[in-house]
Amino acid sequence: MRLALKVLRHPLDLARLRGAVRRGGRSHPDFAAMRAAVAQELAPFAGRGVDGAAVDRQWAALERWDGDLAARLLLRDGRVRAIARRADHERVRWMAWAVARLGRWFALPDLDLLLYFGDHIDRDPEHAPVLCFCRRRQRVGQVLIPDFEILRGHEGLDRRVDRAARRLPWAERAPRAFWRGVTTGGRFDEPGWEAIPRARLVAASRAEPELVDARFTRLVQGAHANPALVAGGWRADEVAPARSVRFRYLVDVDGNSSSWSRLRWLLRSGSLVLKQSSDFLQWYYAWLEPRRHYVPLAPDLGDLAEAVRWARRDDGAARCIAHEGARFAHERLGRAEAFLYLLAVLEGVAGVTRGSGARGAHES
Questions:
Q1: Domain ranges of the chain
Q2: Read out DSSP for 119-140?
Q3: Cβ proximity of 186 and 193 under 8 Å
């Protein structure tokens, strides 16, 4: 099915985006580093000359693994055709839109791209690279790309968060760790749910509310059947990102995978980010440095309270890390930078693949 890409045009910022991406282009100061990062992920396929038959074999495997969250994007003469069981899914539509834009802006060659658009998949592609928004550190053959949310555009969110950050100086922000989110990261209706990191986070808040303010805003993945969670004390209303800036420390914790675009605006807010350590990676993590851009937390968040106490004691160091994190987000995590990274991925894939078709694929 050929997508009606014109309905996906961002009404306010598309022209500005096109100008920024084309002005930066391959001469952008970070583009060489982007290419190097992509080359490292594509290393398993370098020199093998991935051909159409290999792409077909990998597509068949991807459909077996999780066909409902698999897509094949065919770039031909600056246009994209999406082949997928759920070709109308917004993640597929936005990725097709972004690839088509880059194909036209930079006259890219024809490409046959395999995309896994779920949270993450614990499989290692052997025949051809598979693009993904998030992967585990140990996975091989998966190639990270910017998630569809940043490609779709965060300009409105950025303006609201930036405005709130300017209006609320560091000294006026409450010296507590803050988090709101849903019950993801495991089954909350099975024994051992208390060990899920997000459950640990809210439990820490209930135990030490003077240090941490964390609550669930919505119950999913079995949580609605858990009497302990349904009872009072675990839930609160959702809080908009711009309102979260009222707190000096903001927590980033995994759900079913990384928190995707949340970490981006947390960094941008100018508050200190307390980030759970995990093996989930996103496209920009290679340049994100602990103790420079954020404060790392243990995977089980067992050191959260102590991290807050440290930040209170050494306010100058905490503020410096927060400042560096905000600068990183402003300089490296814009929408144009995300498009340029995707460009590096597309050119990298072009370098390891030869022409391929779409034989045996299911089109919808």
A1: 7-153+336-352, 155-333
A2: S------SSS-EEES-EETT--
A3: yes
Q: Are 102 and 342 in contact (CB under 8 A)?
A: yes
Question: Which two tokens mark 275?
Answer: 């980030």
Counting other chains too, the contacts that 202-208 makes at CB distance below 8 Å and 24 or more residues apart are: 202/234, 204/301, 204/304, 204/305, 205/179, 206/233, 206/234, 208/305
Per-10-residue mean pLDDT of the chain, 364 residues long, equals: 43 73 87 96 91 96 98 96 96 96 95 97 97 97 95 90 97 98 96 97 97 97 95 93 98 94 96 97 97 98 98 98 98 94 97 62 34
Using alpha carbons only, what angle is made at residue 20 by residues 19 and 26, rounded to the nearest 5 degrees?
105
Quickly count: other Cβ atoms within 10 Å of residue 351's Cβ. Answer: 15
- 155-333: CATH topology is Rossmann fold (3.40.50)
Coil, strand or helix at 62: helix
Segment holding 190, helix H or strand E: none
CA distance 148 to 99: 11
Query: pTM, whole model, 2 decimals?
Result: 0.92
